[in-house]
Amino acid sequence: MSNSDKDQFLKTSPLAIIASLRDLETQDIAVMVSHARGQFVTKVLAVLPESHEWVLDLSSVSHENRIVLEAESLGVVAETAAAKIEFTLNGGLREQTWQGLPAFYAPLPASLYAIQRREYFRVNTPLSLEFSCRGTLPGYGDFCFQVKDISLGGICLYANKAFTGTLQPGTVLRNAELDLGMFGSFTLDIQFVDVMVNQVLDRKGDTQSQTRFSFRFPMLSAPQERDLQRVIFGLERLQHERRQRVR
C-alpha cells in the first residue's frame, strides 16, 4: 500500500489513538515491536491518558529489553480482525513496575494508522515444520493435509495427490484439527472456498499431482484469534531470523 493510500487511515486525534490502543488492551492482541537489531512480541497492559503514556509487557529475554530501552526508533504493529494498527515510537521508553511487575512505559504516539481490513496478511509455513490439518471431507473421507500458509482469515492446505471428490463452496468442516507444531494445536471450523489441482515436479523430476485447498475461518473466538495471531507473529520471526542468517 502506498503512503498516499495509507493516509486515509491516519489517526492524529488523541482520543482516537487512545481508543485504538485500548482495543488492543481489551482484546489482548499480540503486538510486534521492531527495532534495528530485531523484534519481539508483547501486549498492551494499560493505557494512561492522564500521563499520556501506555504500558506494555517486557520481553522474556533481558538482553532484548536493554536493546529496546536504548533504541532510537521502534516500529509497532498489531492486527485485529477489523484493522491493522501501525505506528512509530521515537524512543522515550522507560522501565517501571505495573501492578507489581516490571513493564515498559511509552509515550502515546502522535499518530497511528488503523488500516481497515480488506485482505488478511498470509504467512507461509516452512516445509521443515510439517504443520498439518486433519478432518473429514464430504464424499472423500478423513484427511490429513499440509498447511501451506495461514492468516487470521483462513488457511491454505496442500495434498500430494489429485482431489477427485466434489466440495461445494461454503461447506463448513466442523472441528478441524490444526497441528502447528511448536505453536500448539487448535480445533476450529473451516469453510471451503476453492480447490485447484496442479502438476508439479518432485525431487526425482517426475510429474505428480498436487491439490491446493483454500479455506476461511467462518468464526473465530477472541482467544482463538489471539492465539493464531501469536502463531503468525512467531512464523514472521522465524522468517526474519532465517533472512538474517542468509545475509
From TrEMBL:
The keyword Nucleotide-binding applies. Keywords: Bacterial flagellum, c-di-GMP, Cell projection, Cilium, Flagellum, Nucleotide-binding. One of its GO terms (molecular function) is cyclic-di-GMP binding. It holds the Pfam family PilZ. It comes from the Bacteria. Residues 116-234 form the PilZ domain. GO terms for biological process: bacterial-type flagellum-dependent cell motility; regulation of bacterial-type flagellum-dependent cell motility by regulation of motor speed. It is found in: Bacterial flagellum basal body. Its main location: other. InterPro entries: PilZ_domain, Split_barrel_FMN-bd, T3SS_YcgR, T3SS_YcgR_PilZN. Residues 9-113 form the Type III secretion system flagellar brake protein YcgR PilZN domain. One of its GO terms (cellular component) is bacterial-type flagellum basal body. Monomer. Interacts with the flagellar basal bodies. Belongs to the YcgR family. Acts as a flagellar brake, regulating swimming and swarming in a bis-(3'-5') cyclic diguanylic acid (c-di-GMP)-dependent manner. Binds 1 c-di-GMP dimer per subunit. Increasing levels of c-di-GMP lead to decreased motility. This is Flagellar brake protein YcgR. The gene is ycgR.
